[in-house]
Design goal:
Blueprint lengths: L1 E8 L3 E5 L2 E5 L4 E3 L3 E3 L22 E5 H11 L13 E4 L11 E4 L2 E8 L4 H7 L4 H7 L5 E7 L1 E3 L4 E6 L7 H9 L5 H8 L6 H15 L24 E10 L4 E8 L13 E6 L7 E6 L9 E6 L5 H8 L6 E4 L15 E6 L3 H13 L6 E7 L8 H8 L5 E7 L14 E2 L4 H6 L7 E5 L2 H13 L7 E4 L31 E4 L4 E4 L7 H7 L15 H4 L5 E7 L7 E4 L9 E4 L1
Parallel strand pairs: 6-7, 19-20, 19-23, 20-21, 21-22, 23-24, 27-29
Antiparallel strand pairs: 1-4, 1-7, 1-12, 2-3, 5-11, 6-10, 8-9, 8-12, 9-10, 13-14, 13-18, 14-17, 15-16, 15-18, 25-26, 25-29, 27-28
């Protein structure tokens, strides 16, 4: 008979870690006597990061005494105590290989249901003083599991654990955990897992993503269950020379470049919404490496980039003032996962300012095929003088039989005409979204400043748009997503103090920073953090589960140069979406 050995609780605390402050509830300690178990947790217990831990599906974490004994042997430690792994229940029995998702157990006067394996994060490494602990739990197949509270009641150490129901499909915690993290992710087992009603929403979403990935003939590499699937591999390695065939002033501060291959080889067709990495600058000076979205779909003959002059932007000023028709720039192949999805669902394109460029490419693609989909064009800018591509958008929308458009000017000029040049004065924001009767079942594509993206994402979710229908692209390096880390003052990206390293040049393309590699850095992640380059990270071990923690997740694209360097690949430094492109000169 399984038995409850210890009931462990603890409230969140602030812990100093690597120069940061972590707010975490992983420190648990045994309590004596009965404790009331409620729907969300146990009396006296709390979670520091409620996005990644806690909630109805993760109310009570269970870990086994058998696993304690294994870790004591593996780690050579005899000082492990109940609650060490952050569990609420330390139990005798209930092995991960035997307990199944959907099993129900009576403990004391409370009734519980098994919902999912534990998703282990970096905070366990802090608690155990073992940085690799999260990965070790996955490697050794000892994650533990979560209970949902079906009936609230009292529990205490010594209570018997009585199984009262078996989960459908009889898939153990160990099997479900391995199905997510370890290949080959068989279709039949994924389908079985999705038939388990008790399986928590995050894991269900991950298995659905894996199933969809397996169903795609040209499935991208990577594990779609742990984050967005990797975008298709770039069409060529490193950089190629492209000639500026035309330079077009779209507005006073937006310049378009038409680029054609200069090496005698055709380019590659880009997916609508993708971007390229460009090296700019005279040969006598250090090159400026930047990433720019393509502002229309490309064929193999040419690409169009549209670049806004920023107040202190060296590269954008160079494009506007010095770059001439006939000049050569170096171009990486199109890449990126912010792309127009095929299908019949409505398409809603939302942008602000120069964020118009990738969604404009999507609009071009829809117009080229005379799409019968319901297409919404929502755009915000300051006024008519800064409204780039206005006539082009009107012409494209005119080709679509089912289109809607709403343009906002935040500070219209006296000559800007309401209902002709723009539809409303103000910002494209959640209150406006509520007035527009947008289709809830559409695919929403957002690009603009960080606050614009965050506000509109929140507004769309309030309108019951599901997260998987909201696709976002952010110009520049995105803000760090560091669950559990206390907010600190934002520091601009910079070259680290001290003498430059002796290694190759590393360029953070979206932050516009060039840094020489040095032996003091153990990884690209450490170099990025030394430069205060925003990096979306969580556990650093590759086991984080973005559906559980709510992370936008990813990969850092590693682009070798010169052209005969090894093929492009992805360096997994965290659980986050591709957002910081690293170029290394070999």
């Amino acid at each position: 008979m399984a038995r409850l050995l210890s009931v462990n609780v603890g409230l969140p605390r602030d812990v100093a870690w690597q120069g940061r402050t972590v707010h975490t509830g992983i420190w648990k300690a045994p309590v004596e006597g009965p404790r009331k178990v409620r729907r969300l947790n146990i009396d006296g217990d709390g979670q520091g990061d409620t996005a990644g831990h806690g909630g109805e599906q993760r109310a009570v974490f269970v870990y086994q005494d058998e696993s304690y004994r294994c870790w004591q042997k593996h780690l050579g430690r005899s000082n492990l105590v109940p609650g060490q792994f952050g569990e609420n229940f330390t139990v005798d029995g209930l092995a991960d290989t035997e307990v199944c998702i959907g099993d129900r157990y009576r403990i004391g006067s409370a009734l519980f249901e098994v919902t999912q394996p534990r998703v282990t994060c970096y905070r366990l490494g802090i608690r155990m003083e073992e940085p690799d602990m999260a990965a070790l739990l996955v490697k050794h197949g000892r994650p533990g599991f979560y209970f949902r509270v079906i009936e609230e009641g009292d529990v205490e150490a010594g209570d018997e654990i009585i199984q009262v129901a078996s989960g459908p499909e009889s898939m153990s915690v160990f099997e479900i955990n391995a199905l997510l993290y370890l290949p080959p992710h068989p279709r039949e087992r994924l389908e079985r897992a999705l038939r388990i009603p008790a399986l928590s929403g995050g894991w269900r979403h991950s298995f659905a993503a894996l199933l969809e990935q397996r169903s795609t003939e040209s499935a991208a590499a990577g594990n779609a269950g742990l984050g967005p699937a990797a975008s298709p591999p770039p069409a060529w390695r490193g950089f190629r020379p492209f000639r500026v065939s035309r330079k077009i002033a779209e507005t006073n501060d937006v310049t378009s470049l038409i680029l054609e291959p200069a090496d005698g080889h055709p380019g590659a067709v880009a997916l609508p919404g993708q971007f390229v990495i460009v090296r700019l600058g005279p040969s006598a000076t250090p090159a400026m490496t930047r990433s720019y979205s393509l502002s229309r779909p490309s064929d193999t003959a040419c690409y169009r980039l549209s670049i806004k002059r920023e107040a202190h932007g060296i590269a954008s000023a160079y494009v506007a003032d010095e770059l001439k028709s006939g000049d050569i720039v170096q171009l990486g192949a199109p890449r990126g996962s912010f792309t127009l999805q095929q299908g019949t669902r409505p398409v809603v394109l939302l942008s602000a300012g120069i964020g118009v460029t990738p969604v404009l490419a999507m609009l071009h693609a829809l117009a080229a095929e005379a799409s019968l989909r319901d297409v919404w064009w929502l755009h915000g800018t300051r006024n008519g003088r800064e409204h780039a591509f206005a006539a082009e958008v009107r012409e494209l929308l005119g080709r679509l039989p089912h289109h809607h458009s709403h343009v906002c000017y935040s500070t219209p000029d006296p000559g800007d005409r309401p209902d002709i040049d723009f539809d409303s004065a103000g910002h494209l924001d959640p209150p406006l979204l509520r007035q527009l009767n947008l289709p809830q079942d559409g695919d929403f594509y957002l690009c603009g400043p960080a606050t614009f993206m965050s506000d509109l994402t929140t507004g769309l979710r309030a309108l019951a748009v599901t997260p998987d229908r909201i696709h976002t692209e952010l110009f520049g390096a995105g803000p760090s997503l560091t669950p559990g880390i206390a907010a600190s003052q934002k520091v601009p990206a910079h070259v680290p103090a001290g003498a430059p390293g002796p290694g190759p040049m590393v360029t953070f393309a979206r932050s516009g920073l060039n840094v020489c590699w040095g032996p003091s850095y153990a990884s690209l992640l450490e170099l990025a953090e030394a430069c205060d380059v925003p990096v979306r990270w969580s556990c650093r071990t590759g086991v984080c589960h973005n559906c559980e923690s709510g992370l936008v997740a990813g990969d850092v694209n590693y682009q070798p140069d010169p052209l005969d360097a090894p093929a492009d690949g992805n360096v997994l430094i965290c659980c986050s979406r591709p957002q910081s492109d690293i170029v290394i000169d070999l």
